[in-house]
């Protein structure tokens, strides 16, 4: 629980984290890795279509591999190969807009991966395939919108990247009470709220400018707040999974960030949320459900 002020319970409030050279010792590798990943993400949008799918397929397969290794169940490589086979087939179906088939193939491969593990870890092996594959199917569904496809992905980038960057600096500069120290010791309320507010505004301004201010500002802002909050929840969820299996990072594939799960945790949650929200609105495309308001 966050500490209260001294006047309420007699406790001294925590001091902000001082800005020292050591406190930003991890900043350089984080920035370098982030720039490389951002470049790949932007290239995927610029090229679109098959290139978009292949770039994100690579990231999703890395997530699937890390998850199956992380949970420590039997036959991790066999489970990964089965997951990869299902994810590739589901991508092929999703690119043809056969989303029901894509979901069925992903579910079947998840069930197969789960059956390869013993009962204590079976549900975790199953969940890892769904966790990774859901990101790919969500992005393909959003990107496929004729008018709104490109901006839906750029909006996601702005929302999640804005949240991550400003949550990091907000927490370091302001400090204060921890959000949930038992799960994510470094995450503060100040950083979380700073990230949520800034990410929502950045996403709203980008989408409104892209669409020449033809979309309603308030619904888009509220949607951005929801997406940033979900993104932060995704970060906490991934942290809880790592703690469940005694790991600090999902892997060491990305300098300064650990693994792809560590880098994409919030993005996975926000992308799935956006795709579900857009689908439930039942408009001409999934992406239209985000930006088309009466």
- Cα distance spanning the termini: 42 Å
Radius of gyration: 20 Å
Strand order of the largest sheet: 1-2
Largest sheet: 2 strands, antiparallel
What integer is the average pLDDT?
A: 88
Proportion in β-strands: under 5%
Number of continuous helical runs: 11
Number of structural domains: 1
Q: Runs with pLDDT <50, length 5+?
A: 1-20
- Number of DSSP strand runs: 2
Helix content: over 70%
Shape: globular
Order of helix and strand elements from N to C terminus:
HHHHHHHEEHHHH
> Helix- and strand-based class?
mainly alpha
Structural summary, described in words:
The protein is mainly α and 294 residues long. The protein has one domain. The protein contains eleven helices and two strands, in the order αααααααββαααα. The chain has helices at residues 6-9, 27-47, 49-70, 76-95, 99-116, 119-143, 149-174, 189-210, 217-244, 260-280, 288-291; strands spanning 178-180, 184-188. α7 (149-174) crosses α9 (217-244), α8 crosses α9 (217-244) and α9 (217-244) packs across α10. The longest helix is centred in the C-terminal third of the chain and has 28 residues, at 217-244. The radius of gyration is 20 Å and the shape is globular. Mean pLDDT is 88; it is low at 1-20.
């Amino acid at each position: 629980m966050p500490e209260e002020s001294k006047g309420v319970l007699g406790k001294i409030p925590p001091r902000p984290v001082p800005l020292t050279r050591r406190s930003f010792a991890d900043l350089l590798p984080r920035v370098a890795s982030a720039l490389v990943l951002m470049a790949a993400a932007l290239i995927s949008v610029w090229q679109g279509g098959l290139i978009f799918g292949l770039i994100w397929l690579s990231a999703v397969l890395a997530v699937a591999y890390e998850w199956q290794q992380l949970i420590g169940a039997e036959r991790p490589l066999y489970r990964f190969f089965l997951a990869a086979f299902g994810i590739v087939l589901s991508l092929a179906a999703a690119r043809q807009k056969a989303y029901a088939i894509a979901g069925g193939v992903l579910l079947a491969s998840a069930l197969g991966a789960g059956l390869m593990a013993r009962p204590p870890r079976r549900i975790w092996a199953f969940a890892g395939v769904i966790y990774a594959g859901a990101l790919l199917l969500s992005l393909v569904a959003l990107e496929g919108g004729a008018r709104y496809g490109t901006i839906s992905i750029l909006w996601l980038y702005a929302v999640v990247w804005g949240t991550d960057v400003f949550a990091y600096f907000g927490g370091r500069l302001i400090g204060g009470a921890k959000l949930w120290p038992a799960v994510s010791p470094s995450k503060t309320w100040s950083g979380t709220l700073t990230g949520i507010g800034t990410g929502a505004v950045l996403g709203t301004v980008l989408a409104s400018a892209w669409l020449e201010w033809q979309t309603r500002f308030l619904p888009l802002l509220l949607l951005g707040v929801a997406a940033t909050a979900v993104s932060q929840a995704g970060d906490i969820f991934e942290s809880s999974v790592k703690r469940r299996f005694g790991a600090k990072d999902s892997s060491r594939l990305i300098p300064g960030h650990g693994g792809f799960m560590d880098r994409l945790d919030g993005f996975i949650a926000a992308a799935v949320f956006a795709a579900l929200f857009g689908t439930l609105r039942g408009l001409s495309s999934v992406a239209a459900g985000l930006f088309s308001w009466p």
